[in-house]
């Protein structure tokens, strides 16, 4: 009897356990499928810091979505993107350069105005940034992610030794250069092997001597490159070359901007170089370990004509959404996150760039970043460097012309005339393909 | 188990079945669940296999694209990727076995995208490089062809060749491994840089220098692009490898999924089998255990019980069942034990009771022999009592009898025997038929007897009949009851002689329906007959008449000759009237001297006439009663049925009564037919009443005022308030139009109160204007008779504080005043104290006795206008007037004449000494608003002012003058053909003639006016005679002129009379 009862109880509990096991198996919640948002970006190498953290932050907040950031060499964004955009399977998001490059692909992009309105991004970004970077043909397409600033980066120890102050005017600048030259130090290092670093000189010399409106006309093909104001820029640039203020050996066209020009400054062979704020990361990296404000610092390009309002220069990197993107809602959600002060702050911490989002507090920045921010705020206008301000085919011509000018400074009248003719031809070709709206 | 043993048997069974059913249900459940689970797993397996095939297809697609690098292949691959992703999403909801497949797949997709882009970019770079190389070659050709310095030219040539060869070298690099290729490119770049430097030295011409710079620059760009393309190629390869590795991961994951799914299915099926098997085994075991448990719980105790039962049967009464279960078996065992206990006790008590019985039996034996002795004694006593009883039965005056089945008497008492004229003994053994010759009666008796015998129940025959030996029929009330003698049933009966009772009863019935005095149907029976007759008339479309008769002068006979005589008279008249009717008619006496006849089956109303006449004649015929010849008559009212309106019996009687009253009023000894139309009109009053009520509420009534004056002095004494109805449709209505409708009605009182209140308000208003116009108001007797009249009057007076004593006078009809003289006089006295005067209205129309008049404190007598109006022509009215005036003088009351229509009336009144008057000659009734102006304007006619009262002695002349006017009127009426005979024409036949020859001659014979009067009188009569003659002779054309002369002479005569009378 006792044994029977025990058997009965054992069997019963076995059945119950088995049933429970079955039901547990059935009841266990399956995690919802995550739909992935592909984000193709060019923040490679030294620029890639922060992207992975941003993706992680997003994925933690959105269990139904997965932001998949995939890096590509930035060259890939310049040409083949035109093809990819037109396929039926573009990624949901691209990183891109604000300005003429975005303008060149805007036909294939999704307008973000509705999202912009909902997210209240008008409050998050400065009107000057929105105007310059986000708006194309009256609609918003571009979400700013980083903002860089082009300025002189100088060897502060050297300046201190020679008791030099960062110059504010053209005269002071020339004086500083003269003082440095006299001590046998190359005042200015220019590494233009990749062509684009030379353009900053053209840009700033033009922006400090000619009205901003002229530059806009020039960039859009309404003014010619052999205009006297342009020729004056080259003349002024040539005078600096003639005075030997630029490095001559190695020639700028053979010098890299980073390992070349930057390291000349680092070694004290040269005093300064005109470059973007990505130099902050370069000088602070493990190889150099310079301290900003102590070992090196920056100063804005000096004033030449007091009557011309200051214009700040620099690229703005950001994100666009292809018109044919599959998951636009998910992409929108990702954009909202990437626009947030939190995400942008994360990104700026690694890249050394400034976050365009105004809600990122000053406390998030280093001292030098704060000063950069102040400089930006001081300038009523912000615009992009030459190769991002004019259509890519024209930009290519310009960069070649700058290189030729560096090789043959005396030939600038001929070079500008030739540039003017070729650029005009390319502008008209561009217009023929895409009539201005 | 202990718990189980404590349960009841029924609960055990229930529990067992419950457990089994639960286990069966569990089996079913497990079967269903496992089935479902396995089905799901199989589905899953199917899907995962499909997924694997899709993955295979995708992989093929990618491989294909890597080979072809065609854009459409890329698109196809993307499409397959999306399909796989969709399939995975579908699976993700159902299984966890997918593992890292989804993320790897996403990674794969992204990498593939990257791969495609890199491919594109590489292609772009390659095309860029080839474009640059083409440009370089073009530039080289161009610079070689250009004009230049020979030195420069050779330098350019050398350079060009070097650049060309450099470019060609790159083609070889393309297939080298990446590191070697990079080193080669670096070498080439350095070479270019060297060429650039050399060119500066060798070429002096700046133009060529820059051209060479550009060529070298483009070549460098070409090298860059080439290097980049190479770089992309290697990157692309890396990406491809990544893709490859991802693909392998996917493959293995898919494989893993398939394996896992299979394993899971195996696992599930195994688990399901174990589960189902366990359940089944569990069920079997449980069933066995329960069966065993139940068997043990039932069989063992039953077996034990059986043994105990057999032991007890064998006589071992002390044997008990030792079962201690708590269930029903336990209870059975306990009951069984109790039963065995009871069995033992019962046996013991049985033995004890047998002993007791034996003792009791011997005791009762002794008692029985004692009782036998006592019974013999009692029997003797009973036979004695029977003898007594027999004597009593014989003494009872009612019939007591018993008969057997054959109707033979077995018992009969003296009373019955006497009725049959025999003795009780002789009656025994005989039947009724032996004494009774009425066979029907005998048969009835026998039938009743049989009924009692057969039914075995008592019966009562309340109207039994018996014929005694003298042949006299008697009424009996017989009771018969069945009476068992040995085995036969007899009838025992008692019959009571109720012959006298019956006679009494029929007498009472007669009294209830017939009048004792006349032996006619009374009111009750009349009602019945009338109802029957009405029903009969309706059925046969015939007519019937109801005649209401009231004897005229019967009361006087009753009063003078006594009731007995009256009664005899009534009986005789009733018999006669009954004889005057037909057989089908009914005559009933309602009481007193009132009778009703119902005449049936009349063809029409006229056919009732001879019967009615006979009826009246019968009533009017003199009757000899108690030696006197008495003479009465009858007034009859007749109504007929059916009528246009629906009527009932009571209404018919009322109508006939009403008509009888009319006949009485019309002079008695006649009949009057009820006029239904007139009756309806009378009833129409009701509507008028309602209208009057509305009129009163709607303020439609007004008061007009007719002044009363002293004709001689012109003094205005006051005004009489006269009620008028300003009817919205009919215009101004006099009281005669509406007052009859509210005669004797509460509305009359209401109206009277309104009149009083309005009149008082009017007096107040006049007073406020400075006018003093006392007002007299007519008061209805009903209003007067109200107990609250005085209080109301007081309140009304108080409401008008401006009034003064004597402002109000109440006029009461002389006729109504006579009805309750005491009450009236009390009220009048009370009113006088309030300052309210009284007048007796229409004085002269009643029969006021002087005594009454004396008692009434009315200060004014209003002479009825009918007397006044006719007094100029009617000597009788004048006589009444003179009488009234005399009364007034005697009782010191003021007399006022109403209806003074002409100056002549006024003059005559003044001559007779009546100065107060009211009438059209003074003023017509007028609205209150007109009174002030009238007062201001009115002056008495001068004739009146100079008219003196004649001396009493001359009054006969006045009368004679009136008489003469009457003669004149008579004559003129005859002349107009209005009367058959002319008045006496002779002058001495008229009263004036008498006066002239007698009294007048004595008193005024000497006066010339008398002589003139006498002569004019003579002439007038002569003229009258001529006129009569003219009419008789037919000379009518002369009549006109003669009549004019007659009028003139009449006026002369009257003038002469006045001249003589005036002092």
From TrEMBL, chain A:
Keywords linked to the UniProt accession: Signal
One Pfam family in the UniProt entry: SBP_bac_1
Compartments (UniProt record): Periplasm
Gene Ontology CC entries for this record: periplasmic space
Signal peptide extent: 1-20
Gene3D superfamilies: Periplasmic binding protein-like II
Keyword Isomerase: no
Protein family per UniProt: Belongs to the bacterial solute-binding protein 1 family.
Descriptive protein name: Extracellular solute-binding protein
Originating organism: Chitinilyticum piscinae
UniProtKB/TrEMBL annotation, chain B:
Taxonomic superkingdom: Bacteria
Domain called EAL: residue spans: 685-939
Residues covered by the HAMP domain: 296-348
Classification via PROSITE patterns: EAL, GGDEF, HAMP, PAS
Keyword annotations from UniProtKB, A to Z: Coiled coil, Membrane, Transmembrane, Transmembrane helix
Cellular component annotations (GO), alphabetically ordered: membrane
GO terms of molecular function: catalytic activity
Record-annotated GGDEF domain positions: 542-676
Start and end residues of each PAS domain: 385-429
A Pfam entry, by short name: PAS_4
Keyword Transmembrane: yes
Regions crossing the membrane: 269-291
A GO BP annotation: signal transduction
Residue runs in coiled coils: 229-263
Protein name: EAL domain-containing protein
Source species of the chain: Chitinilyticum piscinae
UniProt lineage: Bacteria, Pseudomonadati, Pseudomonadota, Betaproteobacteria, Neisseriales
